[in-house]
Specification:
- This protein is an alpha+beta fold and 140 residues long.
- It is 39% helix and 20% strand.
- Strands 2-3-1-4 form a four-stranded antiparallel β-sheet, with helices on both faces.
- The structure holds adenosine-3',5'-cyclic-monophosphate.
- Adenosine-3',5'-cyclic-monophosphate binds next to loops.
Length: 140
């Protein structure tokens, strides 16, 4: 099934000039970039993006980190894009991530884990709508 998913290249990765390396891995996997922008979240915007984690003990620290510098947001498109991009990212905690995955290669810690990806087609739709308007997205 052809799907879209949201990718964030987080501030730790942007800060270390890893945008190109992440995008190269995404394109090598055969996923298509169909929208891309750089964003510097305010605290309120970061809290809104991660609202599903509002009750978690790490929420405030996560939101503070996510507005500490610019990030890159991309919409990815392809067959089974949600699951394929999650496999490419690897486990949330880089200590558990498989060899060759983005988080194994680039992440610094559980919080500074370099990339985000939607966890379902439904959350992808909400996350994409939070950051992009329809006319920003070019179907591939
Ligand atoms: P992400 O895939 O963006 O989804 C939520 C983020 O919260 C996650 O990546 C991590 O950056 C962060 N996170 C998840 N669990 C923890 C935790 N236990 N402590 C700190 N940060 C966490």
């Amino acid at each position: 099934m052809r799907q879209r998913t949201l990718c964030l290249i987080k501030p730790d990765a942007v800060n270390r000039n890893l945008v190109g390396a992440v995008l190269q891995a995404i394109e090598a996997e055969g996923l298509h970039v169909c929208a891309l922008r750089m964003i510097h979240f305010t605290k309120a915007q970061a809290e809104g993006f991660y609202a599903v984690h509002r009750e978690r003990p790490f929420f405030d620290s996560l939101a503070t980190y996510m507005c500490s510098g610019p990030l890159v947001a991309c919409v990815l498109e392809g067959e089974n894009a949600v699951a394929r991009y999650r496999t490419l990212m690897g486990a949330t905690n880089p200590a558990d991530a498989a060899e060759g995955t983005l988080r194994k290669r680039f992440a610094q810690s559980l919080e500074h884990n370099s990339v985000h990806g939607s966890d379902s087609p439904e959350s992808a739709a909400g996350e994409i709508a939070y950051l992009f308007s329809t006319c920003d997205i070019v179907s591939r």
